[in-house]
Amino acid sequence: MIMEARIAPAGRHFVRVVLGLVLIISMALLSSPLALAQSPEGAVASGNVGEIVKTYRNSLVLISNSMGAGSGFIANLGGTTCLITNAHVAAEARGATLKSLDGTTLKAGAPAAAVGHDIFRIQLSAAGQPFEVMEKVDENAAVGDEVVVLGNSEGAGVVKAIPGKIVGVGPNLVEVDAPFVPGNSGSPIVHLKTGKVIAIATYLLVKKFDPATHAVLKEPEVRRFGFRLDSVKTWQPVNWTQFFAQAAEVQHIEGLTKDLEAFLIDIAKNHHVTPGMHNNPVIRNRIDAWSSQATHRLSPADAAMNDQNFVSFLKSACQSDVIAARQRLTYDYFQRALENQQQVRNELTEVFDRIIKELRQQGR
Fold first, then answer.
1. 33-237 belongs to which CATH class?
2. How far apart are the C-alpha atoms of 105 and 127, rounded to whole Å?
3. Do the bridges between strand 111-114 and strand 31-32 make them parallel or antiparallel, or are there none, so unpaired?
4. pTM of the shown model
5. Has residue 46 got a pLDDT over 70?
6. What is the mean pLDDT of residues 315-319?
7. How many of the other CB atoms lie within 10 Å of CB of 157?
8. E-assigned strand segments in the chain
C-alpha cells in the first residue's frame, strides 16, 4: 500500500524522534491520581493513628457514580464546614452521591474550585467531626515528620490508614512517601503529631527513564504529592453544568492526544498504519478518506500529495481543538490542564512536521 511505500522510509528515519517523544511524556508528564505502590518501609505510632481513625472515620466521604468512586473528607476550612476533594475527582462526579463511611448521605451546598491547585470544596451543613486544617504548613511541619493518609481504598468503604513521612514541602505542594492506592485520590494527608490535615493526596510522578542516559530504570521511581490547603488564595465559584461541560471538553482533548501518540508509535514500530487500530473518529475518518483516495490509480505526484495531505491534516488536528478550547475554558483547573496538553501537542506537531518534510523530499 502507498503508506508503506511512501511513509515507511520516513517512519524508519523518525523512529528516534517518536521514541524521544515517548521519553519526554513518560518522564515529565506521566501523572496519575490513582496508583498501586509498594508497602511503606517504616511505621507510625499505631496508637495515634487509631485515635485519628476513631475520631474522624465518619468525616471520610465516598464520592461514587456509575463511573467509579473517589474520596473526600469533611474539614473546617476558614470557619466553614466543607467537603474537600480533588478537582479531578469532582470533574468525574456527574450524578455522584456523597456518603460518609457510616452511610449518611450528605447534602451538597455551594461548590468552588481552588485557583492554582487541584482542590475542590463543597459547603456542607454541620456533619460529623470535621478535620482541622493546618495553617502555615512550612512552619509547623517538617521533612521527616510522620503522616498518615486516610482513605477509602479501592472504594471498599473501609478506612485504610497508609503511613509515611514528609519528604518535601513546597509553596503549594507536600511530597510524602506514603504509598497511595486506588481510591485514595482526594484523601487527607494527616500530620500525625498534631492530627491536622496538611494536604490532600492528589497525584504521582512516575519516572521510568534515567534523565541523563535515557536508559530504562530497573524499577520506576515514584514520587507522591498532595496540594496544601493552607496555600489556596482564591476560590472560583462553580456552576455544575459549565464545570462538567469543560471537563468533558478537556477529556476529549486528552483522549485525542493519546490516540495521536498511538498513531505515531504505530508508524514508528510497524512502518505502516495498522488497519483497525485507530478508532478515534478524528483519526479514523481521515485514514478512511486517505485509504479511499489511495485505491484510485494515482500518478506518483498525486499519490505523494495524498500522503502529504493526510499527515498535514493530523498535524493540524494537533492544534485545532486546543485552540478552540482556549476560548471556552473559564475554570483555572481546566486551563492548566489545557496548558499541559498544549506542551504534548507541540511535540506531536513537530514530529508530524518532520514526516511531511521527509515525504516532500521523497516526492522530488
1. mainly beta
2. 10
3. unpaired
4. 0.82
5. no
6. 95
7. 16
8. 31-32, 60-65, 68-77, 80-85, 97-100, 111-114, 120-123, 131-132, 146-152, 159-169, 173-176, 188-191, 196-209, 216-227, 235-237
